[in-house]
Design a protein that fits this description.
Elements lengths: L5 E11 L4 E12 L6 E2 L1 H10 L3 H19 L7 E7 L12 H9 L6 E6 L6 H13 L3 E4 L9 H7 L3 E4 L2 H4 L5 H17 L3 E4 L5 H9 L4 E2 L8 E2 L3 H50 L5 H8 L6 E7 L10 E2 L23 H7 L4 E3 L3 E2 L6 E8 L9 E7 H4 L2
């Protein structure tokens, strides 16, 4: 492909926080004007190639530049992966089944097992061509990644057909200003859990700030990429490479300290909360002699300002008190309403765990049918007094528990 630019490759590290290692690098093509210190973005190069009708030649030139640069860089990075973007729209341009890329990799002399083909979504008329492409290249030993999960070919109903090894979660998950912190964290935590459950590795890309980095750690993300971790560096720039290694090593150290401090804080707050709940239980065991639950339970709300709801079940899981809610629930909303005396809650996890023999249970986050808020329930069995065997249930907002 003739061009007034010289193609060059930058590499951006991709790190595993748990393994404390750089697992690979994404190859990013840039253009350089010979004799000038001007870097041309990939997007500008792509647009020019599109306007000149030479996208196939441009894409192949980018991959060849990346492979040859990696071949020079790779000896010091044995075992790490090279992430190479592949524009899936090229399959509509007559390249399906050509085997051109596999031959290019063989000619350069790189093990296919070290290469991750990162599927970049653009318009694609025949999805079956993409499925066939993935199958052929996986059989040849290449790894497959989906870019920007949730868009185009990365939509959920197509993932089963593609079966990627790695799914890159788009930075839009945690960058949308309209998302609250709780919603964003819950969404990200859910995506990570779901991706893992279908047999792929989740990778969070576009982490650009310290806050985003620590938020990723909070929800259990392991593999991370972004400018905060390390910006792309030119393979020929030894100084940038050394600074990158130093930066990443410091990041591992900071992450370990942050997670230890966070876990210690969570454990301390959990212990304090459980202790307060047990004080409530003792208070209830003593004050319930006259069974004036309508007086005793509301008074317990004042013992902890983080309590959102409070209610009592009998040993069979039937609610025997009103649900006392800190903030009034709108009567106009029929989807969420506090449970009433006589409601059967025996299928709730916070009851079943105690029925199975436990004396207390700390639930996972869930949406409260009393208020519509994301909460956790702590349930504790009363062991003495007239209410012995009954279960005190206390709901806390998830946001308060993590603060």
């Amino acid at each position: 492909m003739k061009t007034k630019y010289e193609l060059t490759t930058f590499f951006q590290p991709i790190v595993s926080m748990r393994r404390k290692t750089i697992i690979g690098y994404e190859a990013l093509t840039r253009g350089m004007i010979p004799g000038h210190d001007i870097v041309i973005s990939y997007e500008s190069l792509y647009k020019e190639a599109q306007e000149n009708g030479c996208l196939v030649e441009f894409d192949r030139a980018c991959r060849f530049s990346a492979l040859t640069a990696w071949k020079r860089f790779h000896p010091s990075e044995e075992g790490s992966l090279l992430f190479l973007n592949f524009d899936v729209s090229l399959l509509d341009m007559g390249v399906a089944g050509s085997g051109f890329f596999a031959q290019m990799v063989e000619d350069v002399g790189i093990n296919p097992g070290n290469i991750v083909i990162e599927l970049v979504e653009r318009s694609l008329d025949n999805f079956e061509d993409l499925v066939s492409f993935v199958r052929v290249y996986r059989d040849r030993g290449f790894l497959i990644a989906i870019d920007d999960f949730g868009e185009g070919c990365s939509s959920v109903h197509r993932l089963a057909a593609l079966g990627p090894d790695i799914i890159k979660i788009s930075r839009s998950v945690f960058c949308a200003p309209s998302l609250s912190s709780v919603y964003r964290r819950s969404l990200l935590r859910g995506l990570v859990s779901w991706i893992t459950s279908v047999g792929a590795l989740p990778l969070l890309e576009g982490v650009e700030t310290e806050a985003q980095f620590f938020e990723a750690l909070d929800v259990g993300v392991d593999i991370i990429q972004g400018f905060f971790v390390a910006p792309p560096f030119e393979e020929r720039d030894e100084g940038s490479s050394q600074r990158m290694y130093a930066r990443v090593q410091k990041l591992f150290s900071d992450a370990a300290s942050y997670l230890l401090h966070r876990i210690e804080g969570i454990n301390q707050r959990s212990r304090e909360r459980i202790q307060r709940i047990h004080r409530l239980v003792k208070h209830l065991e003593v004050e319930s002699e006259g069974f004036h639950l309508e007086k005793v339970l509301p008074s317990l709300m004042g013992e902890d300002p983080a309590i959102e709801c409070l209610y009592l079940l009998n040993p069979e899981g039937i609610q025997i008190s009103e649900t006392y809610v800190r903030m009034p629930v709108s009567s106009k909303n029929n989807l969420y309403r506090p449970a009433r005396p006589g409601d059967d809650l025996s299928e709730k996890e916070y009851y079943l765990h105690l029925k199975a023999g436990g004396n207390q249970y700390y639930s996972d986050p869930y949406i409260s049918f009393a208020t519509g808020s994301l909460c956790r329930t702590i349930s504790v069995r009363l062991c003495q007094g007239p209410l012995a065997g009954c279960i005190l249930c206390v709901d806390f907002l998830e946001e308060d528990l993590n603060s």
